[in-house]
């Protein structure tokens, strides 16, 4: 029904993505407010920059995960299949153990590329206060790429 409305595929994908990202923002916002209350009202002293970097990383990783889920949702009509595919891919991206094992079996510099994909390492580095933009740019570029592929998949489906 949605695809018969006078909207483009890009508008549909961006609307679904931004709505889910807004909901995700509301989910992680109470933790942020709680930490601010602890810092200011409770006089609990901790470094604000590592916490802010961790929340920024959590937000961009969430955006990346949502775009992967949106891609798998557009790939199949069955929501259960889309959820299971998304879960499998995201657990692979989140699992440093599996990626380290796989990276140790790759020749040349490919192992380092595979190790770089583990987003749990990104959060660990951001949590230590190492605000490296390559992690944030990685999350955002995967997000944009997955949204682009989702739009192209929906456009190709229109012509079948």
Mean pLDDT: 85
Largest sheet: none
Tally of DSSP helical segments: 7
- Alpha-carbon distance between the termini? 17 Å
- What amount of the residues lies in strands? under 5%
Question: Order of helices and strands, N to C?
Answer: HHHHHHH
Structural class by helix and strand composition: mainly alpha
Low-pLDDT segments: none
Query: What overall form do the CA principal axes indicate?
Result: globular
| Number of distinct beta strands | 0
Radius of gyration: 18 Å
Q: What is the percent of helical residues?
A: over 70%
Describe the structure.
The protein is mainly α. It is 79% helix and 0% strand. The chain has 7 helices and no strands. The two termini are 17 Å apart. The model has no long low-confidence stretch (mean pLDDT 85).
Brief write-up:
This protein has helices spanning 9-40, 48-75, 79-94, 96-103, 110-116, 119-127, 133-158.
Essential attributes:
single chain, 160 residues, mainly alpha
Task: Set out the fold topology.
Layout: H1 9-40, H2 48-75, H3 79-94, H4 96-103, H5 110-116, H6 119-127, H7 133-158
Helix pairs in contact: 1-2, 1-7, 2-3, 2-6, 2-7, 4-5
């Amino acid at each position: 029904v949605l695809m018969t409305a006078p909207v483009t595929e890009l508008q549909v994908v961006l609307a679904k993505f931004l709505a889910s990202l807004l909901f995700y923002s509301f989910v992680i916002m109470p933790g942020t407010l709680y930490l601010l209350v602890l810092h200011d009202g409770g006089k609990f002293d901790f470094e604000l920059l590592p916490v802010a970097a961790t929340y920024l990383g959590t937000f961009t990783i969430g955006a990346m995960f949502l775009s992967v889920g949106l891609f798998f949702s557009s790939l199949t009509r069955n929501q259960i299949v889309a959820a299971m595919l998304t879960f499998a891919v995201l657990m692979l991206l989140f699992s440093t153990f599996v990626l380290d094992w796989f990276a140790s079996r790759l020749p040349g510099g490919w192992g380092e590329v595979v190790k770089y994909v583990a987003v749990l390492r990104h959060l660990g580095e951001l949590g230590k206060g190492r605000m490296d933009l390559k992690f944030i740019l990685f999350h955002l570029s995967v997000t944009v790429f997955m949204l682009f592929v989702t739009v192209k998949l929906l456009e190709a489906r229109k012509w079948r």
